[in-house]
Amino acid sequence: MIIENLVLDGIQLLKPKFHQDNRGYFLEKLNSNHLPSFSVKQINQSISKKNVFRGFHFQKSPEEQSKYVWVEKGKILDIVINIQPDSQEYKKYIIIELSDEDNHHLFIPKGFAHGFISMCDDTKVYYAVDNFYNVDCDSGINYQDESIKIKWPVDIKDLIVSDKDKNLPFL
Fold first, then answer.
1. Domains of the chain: which residue ranges?
2. pLDDT of the chain along its 171 residues, tens only?
3. Are the CB atoms for 93 and 24 separated by under 8 Å?
4. Which of 16, 51, 62, 95 is the most exposed place for a label (fewest CB within 10 A)?
5. Are strands 24-26 and 42-48 parallel, antiparallel or unpaired?
């Protein structure tokens, strides 16, 4: 597995090695040796239509979560925002494409909000997390928060957004 440190400190892109033959292929989805401080407690799945935006979600203290994200079917534009007020990278973000074709995985440590745009129908995304979901710690950031200055790669008027996500607070 090739591990690439991305622009935001702590965010890693993991590129598994494909072992292909006449039967198909094999690859590792997760190997704990590559992320020794990450211990999976729960795996979540979402299936989304094209233009669905899910995010920007995170869990507050004391139940923060690191996430390990991959696309099993389809393609997403994954957006990660640094929400650590004491960080020099506060409010900085990255947008990265993940798909079933490249099979890249994204590791997102605690201290970041996460969301994605589904780029095709029936996109299936998995998230392995290192802490259990706690409704009392569930939080997020409104996707229209102009203080983050996101250069959206799509017209946000076309996004399909849940009422919950539309009503999330601004930073």
1. 2-29+37-166
2. 999 999 999 999 999 998 999 999 898 999 999 999 999 999 999 999 999 999 999 999 999 999 999 999 999 999 999 999 999 999 999 999 999 999 999 999 999 999 999 999 999 999 999 999 999 999 999 999 999 999 999 999 999 999 999 999 998
3. no
4. 62
5. unpaired
Kindly list the distances between the CA atom of residue 49 and the CA atoms of 13, 101, 161, in Å, as whole numbers in the listed order: 24, 18, 11
Distance, in Å, from the CA atom of 117 to the CA atom of 152, rounded to the nearest integer, reads 10
**CATH number, span 2-29+37-166:** 2.60.120.10
Nearest CA to 25 among 103, 125, 122, 129?
A: 103
Residues with a known catalytic role? 57, 127
